[in-house]
Backbone:
């Protein structure tokens, strides 16, 4: 059984997988992704960047790179904030004819409401070697634990906190001199290499759904930095 590509189709450089990148902060991962797409003949492209925070630094980075930006602030109605907010996001995904969603420093958990429509078509990158140190303060938690090894993880998104199927990981040593900033900066180097590579696997049809489960079948080829 071949399986169904999680991106919906096998893309090409001439017809790349159309992605939306969701951010909440500095946008360094998004910037690295877009630069990789613009500098190489990758099978994926960023059609729009969506931010849930008006002060996110990534907004100006995206504009400088020539990428469309949409700001989707959470509604004030506390009872329906998540569903209303996600409805607005899904409208933008439809408007830009998006095929795949990429979370990059997006600091909101997605609810079953959006996952009913987009589940299996969303990935995230987390700055630790999952399942160790999930959550919003991975670097702080790594340092507090005394761990000597951390890393980054690209995973499918489900309803849990950094609990989706792992697609790829890289390790990063924790140095005795590290603080949160220095550790974060070194982990980001690996994140910026890994994320475009995994998205290329997705765009080329190497990540599939078979019998309701995610499968990764990547040919053994040299990896680009």
Residues:
């Amino acid at each position: 059984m071949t399986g169904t590509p999680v991106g919906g189709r096998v893309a090409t450089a001439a017809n790349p997988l159309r992605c939306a990148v969701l951010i909440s902060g500095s946008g360094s991962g998004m910037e690295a992704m877009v630069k990789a797409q613009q500098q190489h003949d990758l099978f994926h492209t960023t059609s729009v960047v969506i931010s849930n925070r008006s002060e996110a630094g990534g907004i100006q980075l995206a504009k400088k790179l020539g990428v469309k930006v949409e700001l989707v602030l959470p509604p004030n109605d506390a009872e329906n904030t998540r569903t209303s907010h996600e409805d607005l996001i899904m409208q933008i995904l439809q408007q830009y004819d998006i095929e795949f969603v990429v979370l990059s420093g997006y600091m909101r958990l997605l609810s079953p409401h959006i996952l009913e429509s987009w589940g299996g078509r969303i990935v995230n990158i987390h700055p630790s070697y999952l399942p160790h140190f999930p959550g919003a303060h991975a670097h702080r938690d790594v340092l507090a634990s005394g761990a000597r090894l951390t890393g980054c993880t690209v995973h499918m998104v489900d309803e849990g906190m950094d609990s989706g199927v792992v697609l790829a990981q890289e390790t990063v040593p924790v140095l005795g001199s590290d603080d949160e900033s220095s550790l974060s900066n070194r982990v980001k180097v690996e994140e910026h290499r890994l994320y475009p590579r995994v998205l290329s696997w997705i765009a080329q049809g190497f990540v599939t759904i078979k019998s309701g489960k995610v499968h990764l079948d990547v040919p053994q080829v040299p990896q680009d930095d």
